[in-house]
Design a protein that fits this description.
Elements (H helix, E strand, L loop, with lengths): L1 E8 L13 E7 L3 H18 L7 E10 L8 E7 L8 E10 L11 E4 L6 H8 L16 E5 L5 H9 L23 E7 L2 E6 L2 E6 L3 E5 L11 H8 L15 H10 L2 H7 L1 E3 L2 H25 L10 H22 L5 H6 L2 H14 L6 H8 L10 H11 L4 H14 L5
Parallel strand pairs: 2-6, 3-5, 4-10, 6-7, 7-8, 11-12
Antiparallel strand pairs: 1-2, 1-3, 4-5, 8-11, 9-10
């Protein structure tokens, strides 16, 4: 499922431009529970911003939900979200236009692209829309598109750049084009980490079972963060909604817009979003990777809820082995660069404590990999989770037999090498 929203921002001076003076198109690939929750609160935020008495408010918003096939013959659909809490009442927002994947769209190039798909589905989905990212011929003064990856695992940003934007230039692609007009500009990439508990009653009805957080940081993959200097990143992080924007040079239009959207009061309140420096986010992402390395495959193989892993002695032993290998690999990759507080967060004792804490906090939940196995969809994110540790281990000469066995076991359970 796919979502797209179109927004228009109010004009500002060229030197202090916060939003584009024309409509900006925002698409969401992967309208599962997390994707739909994100789209729902984006729309709430935009609707409230459109009526705010401020010169930086976004108005004229339009959201289009792209489904594999139309839900009905109508032009508009609604989304319903059940907030956390026994006494909370479901809220429905209408006015979402719909379209089927593959339908010709007239909104122009994609300015901001949210990706809330499973990690193993990302590249094939991007293949269908990459030609609609901003082309080099249309980015003068405005900059390239921004892609926001909101999914498990790590390495999707590197895989995306390697496959679709192999050129060493941060604003070119060797193979993509939009409307036949030249090469696609290499996008900016933001990475997201989500801990909200969600599930779907139906395609349009989302249960927000447990409040968590969403953290975002610039990708540090080669040629992604390289295009954003530390001073520009600091300026973006200091932007505040509905206040006079800092002066940021031309070329970062979509990235500014993404930062402002994710830091809006409505989004912060509903989704607990935080935008943080890329270095801090990188450590957060690695800690979450280690949690997923232990929790996801073990719960999938055991067929149990998260908390049951801590009640089984054999699982506790395996968790220590998984975390030990992860800590050794991460330490080897960091080399002499790791130091101080950040280094401590990736040590074996810190990681093991963190893994146990997350498992306890999510004890009643079924992991995403359990759901993948039971759904029969034919794939999991194992290659972007434990598979990443195995790959990194080979690169730095660290043996990872426990993680290798988990990759093999999950592939065997699902069937095939593309698990």
């Amino acid at each position: 499922m796919y979502t797209s929203c179109s927004l228009a921002g109010l004009s500002a001076s060229r030197e202090k431009l916060l939003y584009a003076p024309t409509a900006m198109n925002i698409h969401l690939l992967g309208v599962g529970s997390v994707g739909a929750l994100t789209a729902f609160h984006l729309r709430r935020s935009l609707l409230q911003a459109a009526t705010a008495p401020t010169t930086t408010a976004i108005g004229q918003d339009k959201i289009i939900l792209h489904f594999r096939s139309r839900l009905d013959k109508g032009k508009e659909v609604s989304l319903t979200v059940e907030p956390p809490g026994e006494d909370s009442k479901p809220e429905t927002l209408s006015g979402f236009a719909q379209a089927a994947v593959g339908e010709e769209q007239q909104e122009g190039p994609i300015d901001i692209l949210f990706v809330a798909l499973k990690a193993d589905q990302t590249l094939s989905a991007l293949e269908k829309v990459r030609s609609r990212l901003r082309p080099e011929s249309e980015i003068a003064g405005g900059g390239p598109s921004t892609i926001i990856l909101l999914q498990n695992g790590v390495g999707q940003d590197e895989a995306l750049l390697h496959r679709f934007f192999p050129s060493s230039s941060p604003s070119s692609s060797s193979s993509s084009s939009y409307s036949g007009e030249g090469r696609i500009a290499r996008p900016y990439i933001l990475l997201g980490s989500n801990t909200h508990g969600t599930w779907r009653r139906s395609a349009q009805h989302i249960v927000h079972a447990a409040k968590g957080t969403m953290h975002f940081g610039l990708s540090r993959a080669a040629s992604a963060a390289d295009a954003v200097s530390p001073s520009i990143e600091r300026a973006l992080l200091s932007l505040k909604p509905h206040t006079e924007p800092h002066e940021i040079p031309p070329g970062y239009e979509t990235l500014q817009h993404a930062y402002m959207l994710l830091s809006s009061p409505t989004i912060r309140s509903a989704l607990h979003t935080t935008l943080e420096p890329s270095e801090s986010f990188a450590v957060r992402a690695l800690r979450k990777l280690v949690v997923n390395c232990a929790l996801n495959p073990l719960s999938a193989l055991e067929g149990c809820r998260n908390g049951e892993l801590l009640e089984r002695e054999e699982c506790l032993v395996k968790i220590r082995g998984i975390v030990g290998e992860c800590a050794e690999v991460l330490a080897a990759r960091a080399g002499e660069e790791a130091e101080g507080e950040e280094e401590g967060k990736l040590s074996f004792p810190s990681l093991l404590t963190h893994v146990h804490a997350v498992i306890r906090q999510t004890a009643p939940n079924w992991s995403s990999m359990v759901q993948d196995v039971r759904s029969g969809r034919g794939g999991t994110e194992i290659d972007f989770i434990n598979g990443t540790i195995v790959r990194w281990g080979k690169e730095v000469g660290v043996s990872t037999p426990v993680n290798e066995e988990l990759v093999r076991a999950i592939r065997e359970k699902v069937g095939g090498d593309n698990a």
